[in-house]
Amino acid sequence: MGSVARVRGIYSTALTRILLEEGFGIAQPSVDVAERFRLKSGPARFELDVRDRPDRQGVESFGSPDAQELFITVLRRSLDDVVVRRRDAMSLEVEFPSDSKKRLDQVRGIVAPTVSRHHYLKACGGSVSAAVDMAERLLSRGRSLKETEQMLRATIEPEYPLEDSLVRIERVSLDGGVSSVAGTILSIEDTRLEVRIGDSPPELSKRLGIEEPIDHTVVRTDAEAWLADFVCCPASQNVQARLLCLITPPELYPYGCRSTPDEETHPVPSIRWVDLGVEIASKPTGQTEVTGMGRLEELSRIGVVTEVLVGNAREKLSSAVDSLDQGSSSQARGT
């Protein structure tokens, strides 16, 4: 393609491999990257500068409009759930949700010793990130992957919250906005997580048509189903309503997402996902309403999300609606 990029940060090895395969030149590579790809110092000048976002949830890129367009094309072709936000013609903000991080793990693993969930764990920062560095040094010295990952899990497990721990739910919109609410972890099991929040967002009552006060809301997330299920429990307990939101697989960050342990004395763990803006509202009246799919398709057309993500979202939405309908039918037969 002819463009030259400088790449820095926790995603640099994986992105360098992807960019090289697409014909980019690499300027001023780090010592590790130069060694892994047998690069010389490279050109001094570059058209694209790629570096970590402050929260490590993706990258920022700055450069010429042509180089940015090429970069967007490469990202959308390589990463199914990548989210690209244009600031202006010369700068981008790129989000790497869970599946993008896993794909980047696979790419990195081709050229360097890489533990499972490398980029997610590096994005955690703090002791978790340091433990990854230690584990991968052991891999480079010949330690087996199985033994190393067992040791890594044992090292980082105490950093993670347990049941009854305070946690912050962070919902990231496709335009980059973040809404946050605090809650308490009720259960953690494999890919499923359940949190109780006391002060439910006012818009939730309005969206579901609940007129009486909500006592609490239970949020259930399922990484396999791409769902966040908000179950609203009014004080009377006479009715119950649910809002199912299509999301990218949630990630649990032991030190939170907006700050590092160095910036906050007692960081609150956070559960983070990208909200796809597609919702299924199951109202107390029995009515079910689906919204947002058209907007997601439009965002694909303008390049914010990929067509693959939209296709996956359609499948997850269909499964969720079928499951909801089956549950309603079973309940009706039981009354």
Question: How would you explain this protein's 3D organization?
Answer:
- The chain is globular and about 70 Å long.
- It has 10 helices and 15 strands.
- The strands form 2 sheets. It has a 7-stranded mixed beta barrel with strand order 7-8-9-10-11-12-14. A 6-stranded mixed beta sheet has the order 2-1-3-4-6-5, covered by helices on one side.
- A hairpin with a 5-residue loop joins strand 7 and strand 8 (178-189).
- The protein has 335 residues and is of the alpha+beta class.
- It has 3 domains: 4-98, no CATH class; 116-159, no CATH class; 166-334, FomD-like (FomD barrel-like fold).
Essential attributes:
single chain; 335 residues; alpha+beta; FomD barrel-like fold; 3 domains; six-stranded mixed beta sheet
